[in-house]
């Protein structure tokens, strides 16, 4: 697909000039306002570059490019304005992460040179993202699966957290980025330091003593420290460091950050973590969301509202019971699988994979688990199950 450029200006004669000068050089769309530009983004496969005028009614260029930065972070942003005020340039760079700042009138040659540079940056970002998605993300998700199967009590919540996190991101209109899944799948990695007694209490929703809370509060920092040693994982590490930080500034770590000063990934994890914990403690969906509402000062209100909007997407209508041979890749477990002596083998919410099927089959073959197993069928196609 051709790399597309979006030109945004409220003056139709300016947009017409762009078309005449650049139509043979680029594949592009035009929009007469910030609102129209965002609608075009929503209805497209994305843009490589956006070129926006500064002075527009309702939504100015800084506001538009800041919103593009949230919704389409890979899009490279260029600002065009007739205002030479220095503060405009500062705001544009700081809030919109602008690649180029050009003053009007701008010659077609100067504008084309800026767009060519922006396209080069977009291609470099795309290549980097592809490498990250195919290597780092795949490796980290594999590690998460191994941890979940090796210790489901400590690490088995990752699939449920991932499910709700991705749904909330979509509800917020944010473009999925490569680090979102590793963030969800590895947010519990710091649990390696927690005693089993604390893990059991957290899983059951029981209250922790003051000393236990202090111990529990250390796990995000440990997880962040472990992941910070991996190149390109800085944003994941920083988000995990703040996943137990409350929106009102309480919680862990005990610093002065609060509200929007807390990294977005940390705020996102706080909501989805606590919701998944409430479900794991035996509450139903309505009771779980009511618990979060009761403690709403702990949560980013926009993220909490987005979760409330998506919790109606239930797998209940697609639930079914299957035997071991009926497990298919991509299904979601709707019950814990435990051995006959009560040891947790796989936690509810885990996505069925070839490794999980093999684990369950081996225990079933030795008559150490009971069937049938309650699962939900995903909307996407699934692969064939294991014959044995």
CATH T-level topology of the largest domain: Hypothetical protein af1432
Beta strand count: 10
- How many domains, in number, for the residues? 3
Head-to-tail CA distance between termini = 43 Å
- Which CATH class of the largest domain applies here? Mainly Alpha
Low-confidence stretches: 380-388
**What name goes with the CATH superfamily of the largest domain?**
Hypothetical protein af1432
Shape: elongated
Over the alpha carbons, how many angstroms does the gyration radius reach? 24 Å
Number of helices: 16
The CATH architecture category of the largest domain equals: Orthogonal Bundle
Mean pLDDT across the residues is 83
* Largest sheet entry: 5 strands, parallel
Strand order in the sheet with the most strands:
2-1-3-4-5
Strand proportion, as a percent range, falls in: 5-15%
Q: What fraction, in percent, of the residue positions are helical? A: 40-55%
Order of helices and strands: EHEHEHEHEHHHHHHHHHHHEEEEHE
Give the class from helix and strand content and strand pairing: alpha/beta
Describe it:
- The chain is an alpha/beta fold and 388 residues long.
- It has 3 domains: 4-125, Response regulator (Rossmann fold, 3-Layer(aba) Sandwich), CATH 3.40.50; 151-313, Hypothetical protein af1432 (Orthogonal Bundle), CATH 1.10.3210; 315-388, Molybdopterin biosynthesis moea protein, domain 2, CATH 3.90.105.
- Helix content is 49%, strand content 10%.
- It has helices at residues 12-22, 34-42, 61-71, 86-96, 108-150, 152-155, 158-171, 180-186, 196-204, 210-216, 219-227, 234-241, 264-280, 285-294, 301-310, 354-365, and strands spanning 4-8, 27-31, 49-53, 76-81, 100-103, 319-322, 332-333, 337-338, 344-346, 373-376.
- The strands form 3 sheets. The protein has a 5-stranded parallel β-sheet, with helices on both faces. A 3-stranded antiparallel β-sheet has the order 6-10-7, with no helix packed on it. A two-stranded antiparallel sheet has the order 8-9.
- The two termini are 43 Å apart.
- 34% of the residues are buried.
């Amino acid at each position: 697909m051709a790399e597309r450029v979006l030109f945004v200006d409220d003056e139709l004669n300016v947009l017409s000039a762009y078309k005449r000068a650049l139509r043979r050089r680029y594949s592009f769309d035009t929009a007469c306002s910030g609102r129209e530009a965002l609608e075009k983004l929503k209805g497209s496969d994305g843009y490589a570059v956006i070129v926006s005028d500064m002075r527009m009614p309702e939504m100015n260029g800084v506001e538009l490019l800041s919103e593009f930065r949230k919704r389409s972070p890979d899009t490279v942003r260029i600002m065009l304005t007739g205002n030479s005020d220095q503060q405009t340039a500062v705001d544009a760079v700081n809030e919109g992460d602008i690649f180029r700042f050009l003053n009007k009138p701008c010659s077609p040659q100067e504008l084309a040179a800026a767009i060519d540079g922006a396209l080069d940056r977009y291609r470099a970002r795309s290549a980097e993202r592809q490498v990250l998605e195919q290597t780092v993300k795949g490796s980290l998700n594999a590690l998460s699966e191994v941890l979940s199967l090796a210790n489901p009590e400590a690490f088995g919540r990752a699939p449920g957290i991932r499910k709700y996190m991705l749904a909330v991101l979509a509800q917020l209109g944010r473009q999925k980025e490569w680090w979102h899944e590793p963030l969800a799948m590895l947010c519990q990695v710091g649990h390696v330091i927690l005693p089993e007694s604390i893990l059991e209490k957290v899983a059951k929703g029981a209250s922790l003593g003051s000393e236990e809370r202090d111990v529990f509060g250390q796990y995000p920092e440990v997880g962040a420290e472990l992941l910070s040693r991996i190149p390109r994982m800085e944003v994941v590490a920083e988000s995990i460091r703040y996943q137990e930080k409350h929106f009102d500034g309480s919680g862990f770590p005990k610093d002065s950050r609060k509200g929007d000063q807390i990294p977005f990934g940390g705020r996102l994890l706080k909501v989805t973590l606590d919701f998944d914990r409430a479900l794991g403690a035996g509450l139903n969906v309505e009771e779980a969301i009511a618990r979060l509402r009761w403690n709403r000062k702990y949560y980013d209100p926009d993220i909490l509202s987005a979760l409330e909007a998506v919790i109606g997407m239930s797998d209940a209508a697609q639930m079914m019971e299957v035997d071991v041979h009926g497990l298919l890749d991509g299904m979601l477990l709707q019950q814990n699988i435990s051995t006959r002596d009560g040891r947790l083998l796989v936690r509810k919410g885990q996505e069925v994979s070839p490794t999980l099927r093999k684990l369950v089959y081996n225990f079933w073959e030795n008559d150490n688990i009971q069937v049938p197993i309650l699962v939900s069928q995903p909307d996407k196609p699934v692969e064939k199950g294991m014959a044995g």
